[in-house]
From TrEMBL:
InterPro entries: Hist_DNA-bd, IHF-like_DNA-bd_dom_sf. It holds the Pfam family Bac_DNA_binding. Gene3D superfamilies: IHF-like DNA-binding proteins (4.10.520.10). GO terms for biological process: chromosome condensation. Belongs to the bacterial histone-like protein family. This is DNA-binding protein. One of its GO terms (cellular component) is cytosol. Keywords: DNA condensation, DNA-binding. The keyword Cell membrane does not apply.
């Protein structure tokens, strides 16, 4: 499912126009992004938690060669699945 299909599904479930659903979805995504930029986590009980984590610099080996490269430290977004979502997905 891509973003447009997701917006259509939200509009249908919530009884909203596609324009209103797009606004709501964009607002949610923007709010999550802004929180992660501030290094704050966003939790939805039962669904999951969006958080940021720091990855240390490391040396990595290039597959198929003996060459190594330095991978710089970085900050990444992570998602930890909540119990209810995990159970819903594994039940199917």
């Amino acid at each position: 499912m891509n973003k447009a299909e997701f917006i259509d599904a939200v509009a249908a479930k919530a009884g909203l126009s596609k324009k209103d659903a797009k606004g709501a979805v964009d607002a949610v995504l923007d709010t999550i992004t802004e929180s992660l930029v501030k290094k704050e986590s966003v939790s939805f009980i039962g669904f999951g938690t969006f958080a940021v984590a720091d990855r240390a610099a490391r040396t990595a080996k290039v597959p198929g060669t003996d060459k190594t490269v330095e991978v710089p430290a970085t900050t990444v977004a992570k998602f930890k699945v909540g119990k209810a979502l995990k159970e819903a997905v594994s039940a199917k």
